[in-house]
Amino acid sequence: MRRYGKHTDEDDIRSRPNRKGNRPRTSIRPKHEDAAEGMVLTVDRGRLTCLVEDRVVMAMKARELGRKAAVVGDRVDIVGDLTGAKDTLARIVRIGERRSVLRRTADDDDPFERVVVANADQLAIVTALADPEPRPRLIDRCLVAAYDGGLEPLLVLTKSDLAAPDELLEMYGALGVPHVVTTREEFVDGLAADRVREYLVGRTTAFVGHSGVGKTTLVNALVPQEKRRSTGHVNAVTGRGRHTTTSALALPLADKQGGWVIDTPGVRSFGLHHVDPSRVIHAFPDLVPGTEGCPRSCSHDEKDCALDEWVAEGHADPARLFSLRRLLATRERREGD
Q1: Is the Cβ–Cβ distance between 123 and 313 less than 8 Å?
Q2: How large is the greatest C-alpha to C-alpha distance in the chain, in angstroms?
Q3: What are the DSSP calls for 74-88, one per residue?
Q4: DSSP 8-state class, residue 241
Q5: Contact between 160 and 182 (Cβ < 8 Å)
Q6: Is 127 helix (H, G, I), strand (E, B) or coil?
Q7: Closest CA to 209 of 166, 249, 241, 163
Q8: Alpha-carbon span 160 to 158, nearest angstrom
């Protein structure tokens, strides 16, 4: 086998011909210093609708990003035609660091997580008090996903004219989750949207909820200038709603109040296979100091957990520890069990 030294004449080196006639591959990636910053509004079959300054631009992911995917809410760098003109297509060359993520898996046995929304400040969990019946286990799972991903939860209870909210509010009282209770009539006259809007101004909020609870109706009221989503009805036989939202979509709040609403597809299950229980405890700052005496890899729901003694000494409310353990336990139980 012939070997070459440091000072080999280039003419003496045999190069492999490029059969395709195109440029050889290189590990050096372009810097794209002229790239513009944008925000992903929605994703549809490989095409990403982005907002660049005040223009809506259609883009696709650059090959150099590999398997890394952009999702709604991502801050991205874009090059190419950024005019937003019809039939133009730009390229996303960089995806910014995410400060929060809403993730889920198809079920608890699915090892592949899916990032639904990035960079949201809070998660609005919409649930009806009746028609369809509330599903506390699903609410628990959404709360775990919010705490795990760095989002602040907001509980929106609808149809309070059909059932009282007291029992559900008592269940989540120890968590200190802010909440809004609305009636069907308030949905019609716009009062419900006005009350929810107070929590949204200046923030990016992802809305999640199972079908038939009024999530899309509420989003339509919050962003009437973008009213494009159909609404469904609850099936009288199954008690379930029909999915009307098929992909996540970011919409600006009305009247340029400063804030974004992200409507997500209705969910019937919320897998938590990806959740690390050790991250959920950080949503309970009053309990975190008590974990210093816990054994390594403590699940915070076992015999030697130091939180029991911490709470018994009066450092925290026992209801807070109970709530933490209920949320952690929901990861081990299937939604609906």
Answers
A1: no
A2: 87
A3: -EEEEEE--S--TT-
A4: B
A5: yes
A6: strand
A7: 241
A8: 6
What count of Cα atoms within 13 Å lies in the side-chain half-sphere of residue 91?
10
Cα–Cα–Cα angle for 248, 161, 320, rounded to 5 degrees = 65
**Count of CB atoms situated within 10 Å of the CB of 158:** 29
The beta strands (E) that lie in the chain are given as 36-44, 47-52, 55-61, 75-80, 90-95, 101-104, 114-118, 122-128, 152-158, 179-181, 204-208, 249-252, 260-263
Low-confidence stretches of the chain (pLDDT < 50) are 1, 4, 8-13, 228-245, 337
Best CA proximity match to 103, nearest among 276, 315, 220, 251: 276
Q: Which pLDDT belongs to residue 207?
A: 96
Predicted local confidence at residue 233, as pLDDT: 43
pLDDT score recorded for residue 258: 86
What is this structure's pTM?
Answer: 0.81
pLDDT at site 337: 47
* Per-residue model confidence (pLDDT) at position 14: 54
* Secondary structure tally for the chain: helices H, strands E: 8, 13
Cβ-based neighbours of 315, under 8 Å, separated by 6 or more = 286, 289, 290
Helix or strand or coil: residue 283?
A: helix
3-state secondary structure 198-229: CCCCCCEEEEECCCCCCHHHHHHHHCHHHCCC
Give 157's strand partners. 127, 181
Amino acid occupying residue 23: R
pLDDT, position 110: 61
CA 153 to chain centre: 11
With a CB cutoff of 8 Å and minimum separation 6, the contacts of 1 are none
CA distance 229 to 266: 13
Dist CA 241 CA 263 (whole Å): 16
Give, as one character, the DSSP assignment of residue 144.
H
